[in-house]
Design goal:
By secondary structure, the protein is mainly beta. It contains two helices and ten strands, in the order E-E-E-E-E-H-E-E-E-E-E-H. It has a seven-stranded antiparallel beta sheet. A three-stranded antiparallel beta sheet has the order 8-9-10, with helices on one face. The protein is globular and about 40 Å long. Residues about 1-5 have low confidence and may be disordered.
């Protein structure tokens, strides 16, 4: 699966108290942590003072999907959708499994189908 190029750059992202930039196409997923967001990219964790809701409004919905109140995932890194008794999981290229909120499952299923991800 080829990664799509996205022109956004994230600023004010921190790792170990040092400010840096991360290309949005490098971000695998974002995780909400109270009033900040942890970005997982290139095998590292970065922190941003923006909330997940801010990222959701900023990012292209074709490239990122909100799967849970705590997670937003870059569709380029999704391997497959795994169904469970009460909802489901997304498996990412690095083997991480993230839970999908039950109320979001049908919308995510349709979104992944349109992107040819099963």
């Amino acid at each position: 699966m080829e990664q799509r190029k996205v022109k956004y750059q994230l600023t004010k992202v921190f790792k170990d108290m040092d400010q840096s930039q991360v290309g949005i196409n490098e971000v695998m997923y974002l995780e909400a942590k109270v009033n900040y967001t942890v970005l997982y990219a290139n095998g590292q964790k970065f922190t941003s003072s923006r909330t997940l809701k801010n990222f959701e409004m900023m990012l292209n919905t074709n490239d990122f999907v909100r799967i849970h109140k705590s997670y937003m995932v870059n569709t380029s890194f999704i391997c497959k959708l795994i169904y469970a008794e009460k909802g489901g999981f997304l498996k990412l290229r690095n083997g991480v499994k993230l839970g999908i909120a039950r109320r979001r499952l049908s919308g995510i299923k349709e979104k992944l189908k349109s992107l040819n991800i099963t």
